[in-house]
């Protein structure tokens, strides 16, 4: 890529952004985010941002899904068809532990934009997971600062269950997806059986997490007109991928 990824990303933004600590910030010093839950406060912690990539997320998701971190990345790259994509948006990217590896699967002129609301996470992303095909943006995923149909690959891995308005965020992800583009999410899952679902939901709510059912995102994508929807469930995790039809 001959052009600076920061300047390329700045050209994609629909809002003015200040370059801070190596990432573009459309929020500035104040945000309209609601009072964070216990889990959300943890994800904004400098300590959690430091250990998240190397320790917490790989071990937590292996326990929840039975998949290694590298296996998750391979599945995501394949589902998103990154070898033929140009612009990838990684929503709630955290410290960039998915953004950077996925960027490596893009063509030589591709761009991966990691998006998050946490300054601590993005500071860690810039320090640990920057590269010639990556740029990080701070903003609120409930209102993505990009025009319609900006990206041909959009993903969110391990974060929707933390968000106060996850379906609004998913709708925004669909909005910025180009015709012919692909979307993928990895999030929580509880089986339909009440004996399992009820205690899982109660425990999750106690720390500010949300557990989703089998049809939640499948139905959302279908209602939005997406096609080729595929869902895989493993233990407490679901992986859903879909395509925006070509016009």
Key descriptive features of the protein:
247 residues, alpha/beta, Rossmann fold, 9 helices, SAM-dependent_MTases_sf, Methyltransf_11, methyltransferase, transferase, Methyltransferase
Task: Give the DSSP E fraction (strand runs of 2 or more residues).
Answer: 15-25%
Distance between the termini: 29 Å
Give the CATH H-level superfamily of one domain.
Answer: Vaccinia Virus protein VP39
CATH architecture of one domain: 3-Layer(aba) Sandwich
What is the third-level CATH name, the topology of one domain?
Rossmann fold
Radius of gyration: 17 Å
Mean pLDDT, all residues: 85
H/E element order: HEEHHHEHEHEEHEHHEE
CA-based shape: globular
Please give the count of helices: 9
Secondary-structure class: alpha/beta
By CATH reckoning, the class of one domain would read Alpha Beta
